[in-house]
Amino acid sequence: MTVIKLKIADVAIELRSQFRMKPLDKTYDWPYKNFIHRTKKNPEIILHIKVMANPPLFYRSERIFATIHPLSGDTNWSLFKKGEGYILVQYVSKKTQWAILNKGFSKGTVYIPPDKKNTSWKLEDMIHNFLQIILINYLSRREGIVVHSAGLKDVDKRGLLFAGPTRSGKSTTARLWHDHSRAKILNDDRIVIRKAQDKFYIFSTPWHGDFFKYFKSSPDKAELKNIFFIYHSPENKIKYLRPKEAYRYLYPNIFPAFWNKESLARQMNLCWDLVSFIASCRLGFKKDKSVISIVRSSRYKRFSHR
Fold first, then answer.
1. Which is nearest to 153 in space by CA: 221, 91, 105?
2. Which of 124, 140, 156 is a domain's end point?
3. Could you count the other beta carbons within 10 Å of the beta carbon of residue 241?
4. How far is it, in rounded angstroms, from Cα 136 to Cα 86?
5. How many domains does the chain have?
6. Is 103 inside any structural domain?
7. DSSP letters along the chain, please?
8. Which of 96, 190, 204, 257 is most buried by its number of CB atoms within 10 A?
9. pTM of the full predicted structure?
10. Does one domain contain both 198 and 170?
11. How far apart, in whole angstroms, are the C-alpha atoms of residue 166 and residue 163?
12. How confident is the prediction along the chain (306 residues), in pLDDT tens digits per residue?
């Protein structure tokens, strides 16, 4: 049996299969190999992988959510309710992958179609995007969220988060800090935030954006100290935000579990706790290294609730 252990955002994940996993491809899989972990921690998510041309038919299931590609209009993935559990269907590279998952998204069976009659599977089949979707759901029940953001661990160990929509400058920010500072880049597009003992931590993830040279270093985490909602600007400028303002910028940049009211409520409460505790700013920045000193020299304010 093939057993692959992963660790993402301190979540121990175990992939089990009677089918062989293909050797890692240096072109596609190298960002993922750092998350393969020989952890002694008991797995929190266990997924059994089967390679099958015709997976079981799933009757009496109700689709509760689907994501649509903004350019092609094609469905990326769909989530179905089946009894107490879920069925996740992913459409990628002209093939359909299925997963039957329990209520807590901690156990499941994944069905991957064979590739040219080859009954082996690739780590990429699981990590992109199956594990991201599963982790979003798993963390939504456990004081965690995935945020559309770049994140880094500065030389003073302080965690900094740079959140924003597509083209707001997340990959540019990661590139500037990577090239002109000794900070450790955690990710340039997807960051996990988890709350533990009244502190917030940011974690590396395998899901990168346009810039990914930082994947040469191992995954890491940092205690979050400041959040910046970024945008391109002809000059560097910072505007401090009160919690209500910061919440309006943060929520559109998380990956919410719309399909589960309880999970969504937990995520919304976590977002409010986050902006109430962590100093937040709007950051307009020029595309040069001067923004690094601006960020480091800023005096952060914490606003009370109003």
1. 221
2. 140
3. 22
4. 14
5. 2
6. yes
7. -EEEEEEETTEEEEEEESSPBPPPPTTTTHHHHTTB----SPPSEEEEEEE-SSPPP--S-EEEEEEE-TTT--EEEEEEEETTEEEEEEEETTEEEEEEE-TTSSEEEEEE--BTTB--B-HHHHIIIIIHHHHHHHHHTTTEEEEEEEEEE-TTSEEEEEE-STTSSHHHHHHHHHHHS-PEEEESSEEEEEEETTEEEEE--S---S--GGGGSPP-EEEEEEEEEEEE-SS-EEEEE-HHHHHHHHGGGB---TT-HHHHHHHHHHHHHHHHHSEEEEEEE-SSTHHHHHHHH-----PPP-
8. 204
9. 0.94
10. yes
11. 10
12. 899 999 999 999 999 999 999 988 877 777 888 899 887 789 999 999 999 888 777 766 789 999 887 777 788 899 999 889 999 999 877 788 999 999 999 999 999 998 777 789 989 888 888 899 999 999 999 999 999 999 999 999 999 999 999 999 999 999 999 999 999 999 999 999 999 999 999 999 999 999 988 988 889 999 999 999 999 999 999 999 999 999 999 999 999 999 999 999 999 999 999 999 999 999 999 999 999 999 998 765 554 444
The enclosing domain of 175 has a CATH number of 3.90.228.20
On whether residue 304 sits in a domain, the answer given is no
Residues 282 and 164 placed together within one structural domain of the fold? yes
- Are 13 and 5 in contact by the 8 Å Cβ rule? The answer is yes
Which single residue is written with the structure tokens 């992913």? 90
